[in-house]
Design brief:
There is one protein chain. By secondary structure, this protein is an alpha/beta fold. It has three domains: about 1-60, Beta Barrel (OB fold (Dihydrolipoamide Acetyltransferase, E2P)); about 70-215, P-loop containing nucleotide triphosphate hydrolases (Rossmann fold); about 230-295, Ribonucleotide Reductase Protein R1, domain 1 (Orthogonal Bundle), CATH 1.10.40. About 30% of the residues lie in helices and about 25% in strands. It contains nine helices and 15 strands. The chain has helices spanning about 90-100, 120-135, 145-150, 155, 170-180, 230-235, 240-245, 260-265, 275-295, and strands spanning about 1-10, 15-20, 20-25, 45-50, 55-60, 65, 70, 75-80, 105-110, 140, 160-165, 190, 195, 205-210, 210-215. The strands form four sheets. It has a six-stranded mixed sheet, with helices on both faces. Strands 1-2-3-5-4 form a five-stranded mixed beta barrel. The longest helix has 22 residues, at about 275-295.
């Protein structure tokens, strides 16, 4: 028996890597009965007579798990958003950040295609960078194919399992190709009719890039808040979480309660009003979802 990590799942096979190399494995027969589904990123115990004929015997406990894309034990999410084509959307970025925060994954924001932006838009993106850095999020600005800027990403990847996510067409696959050209990941141009790119990634695979592992995935196919509770949401906004203990009432939702430290911080300009408005939108969405499911 040996231990390793699943780095790829395809057509019922799991590809497990350890210091001895890569092994093609199937799941153990009783996994279905035990409701165990191995995921890319899982640390597993396996046995193999040769490199193409192995069986996964056990899956070790996970520190986190994403449903779509199906991957486990993620340390970091690299959220790629473009300055233009498609246009940068703070609302969509905040939605992504909530999904990352609720899974206790560290986010890294990359704003791509800066070379396609005019001077006014470049200045706007610099301001967005400062806004998110003030909250505590690391932000990198990158051009379409600027290798020096891409190399700034390598220290963030080192010794971590990262997942790349973001809108279609923002340059996720191009970013990975620039970091490691031999990957030759398929990319597609933006559809000018729809304003978005086509999905080009078909399965989840952990790629060795620099000193880390990066998942080339189909991205988040769902960004709803199913499974989240109202009281969970403010913890996904770091600037609100750090002030919540100063609220007058425990379990404050930061909407209508008196003595709310979060609302006071919004009024004082310490919390961005736009972020607070996004919080309100997401809170209403969670409440409406619960009403539908409870009715």
């Amino acid at each position: 028996m040996a231990k390793g990590m699943i780095v790829k799942a395809l057509s019922g096979f799991y590809y497990v890597r350890n210091e001895e190399g890569l092994f093609q494995c199937r799941g153990r027969g009783n996994f279905r009965k035990r409701q165990i589904k191995p995921l890319v990123g899982d640390e597993v115990e396996f046995e193999a007579e040769n490199r193409t004929d192995g069986y996964i015997l056990d899956v070790f406990p996970r520190k986190n798990e994403l449903i779509r894309p199906p991957i486990a034990n993620v340390d970091q999410a690299i959220l790629v958003f473009s300055a233009i084509e498609p246009d940068f959307s703070p609302l969509l970025l905040d939605r992504f950040l909530v999904h990352i925060e609720v899974n206790r994954i560290e986010p890294l924001i990359v704003i791509s295609k800066m070379d396609l932006a005019d001077a006014v838009l470049q200045e706007k993106m610099e301001q967005e960078k400062k806004r998110y850095e003030k909250i505590g999020y690391p932000v990198l600005l990158s051009s379409t194919v600027e290798m020096n800027e891409m190399e700034d990403l390598l220290p963030h990847i080192a010794n971590k399992v990262s997942v790349v996510a973001g809108q279609s067409g923002v340059g996720k696959s191009s970013l990975l190709n620039t970091l490691q050209p031999e990957l030759n990941i398929e990319t597609n141009h933006i559809s000018t009719h729809l304003g978005r790119g086509k999905h080009t990634t078909r399965h989840v695979e952990l790629l060795s890039i620099g000193e880390g592992l990066v998942a080339d995935t189909p991205g988040f196919s769902s960004l709803d808040f199913i499974g989240m509770e109202v009281q969970d949401l403010s913890a996904c906004f770091p600037e609100m979480e750090e002030r919540a203990s100063a609220c007058k009432f425990r379990g404050c939702t930061h909407i209508a309660e008196p003595g709310c430290a979060v609302k006071e911080a919004v009024e004082a300009g310490e919390i961005e009003e736009s972020r607070y408005k996004h919080y309100q939108l997401f809170l209403n969405e969670i409440k409406n979802q619960k009403r539908r499911y409870d009715s």
